[in-house]
Amino acid sequence: MEGHTDQGLPAHLADAWGLRDRPAKGPKRGLSLRRIVDAAVAVAGAESLAAVSMSRVAAELDASPMSLYRYVASKEDLLLLMVDAIYRTPPSPHAADGGWHEGLRRWACEQHAILDAHLWALYVPVSGPPMTPHQLNWLEHGLARLGTTALAESEKLSVIMLLSGYIRNEATVTAEVRQSFLAAAPDERAAMASYGRLMRGLTGPGRFPAMNRVIDAGVLDEPTGSDKEFTFGLDRVLDGVGALVRARAKKGDDHVPAGR
């Protein structure tokens, strides 16, 4: 099957937007693109992204692997459709009287929760900007949160890309820490305490005085948890965005003629 449709669209985009005709004959009765994608998401969640293959998904659906190719062009396209599927539920509505800061904060936290629930999605390579319908819907909601600001349209998009990058990076680091560092200890407190003892033994106060002050302050004895670390970083990013929003608003005020 070709990777592009007659309209020149990549096959996975035509599939995602429902723009590709389906064969009238041949596929197993009841088989659909959504069922295929949902079955693949289930396999990735229950096992791993590596477990996803056309034959494995076909087995979940009691279908032949070749029947899946009538609906999706390749495994690579299936992976992209899987990522779009996890964003099927839109962000919660933004209150009309809600500020941009709280709106974006909630948007970011909800997106982070989606990735935390589907860690396999972090290992699907990013092939470009959002183009599939559910991801574009999330982008639209993010941009809309900034609608009351004086930011230029290009700046609004840059803010959303900044936030999206932070969300994905933090989720990836947290997942990898869980899989290695934290998995070797009974809980996060024990893991951090062990790390503190190790660092104290390896680093003398004369060589790493700043790190030793952190250890002496008991910072590693009371781990904050990944959620608090995420929101701490998120709030600092939004603080920076807030400075830009205020600067653009002041610039606009400076151009208003006196007496108006």
How would you describe this structure to a colleague?
- Residues 53-72 bind DNA.
- GO terms for molecular function: DNA-binding transcription factor activity; transcription cis-regulatory region binding.
- This is TetR/AcrR family transcriptional regulator.
- One of its GO terms (biological process) is negative regulation of DNA-templated transcription.
- Keywords: DNA-binding, Transcription, Transcription regulation.
- This protein has 2 domains: 11-85, Orthogonal Bundle (Arc Repressor Mutant, subunit A); 100-254, Tetracycline Repressor, domain 2 (Orthogonal Bundle).
- Helix 2 (33-46) crosses helix 3, helix 6 runs parallel beside helix 8 and helix 6 runs antiparallel to helix 11.
- The relative contact order is 0.09.
- The chain is 58% helix and 0% strand.
- By secondary structure, the chain is mostly helical.
Task: Detail the topology: elements first, then pairings.
Elements: H1 11-16, H2 33-46, H3 54-60, H4 65-68, H5 75-85, H6 100-117, H7 133-145, H8 153-179, H9 188-202, H10 209-216, H11 226-254
Helix pairs in contact: 2-3, 2-5, 6-7, 6-8, 6-11, 8-11
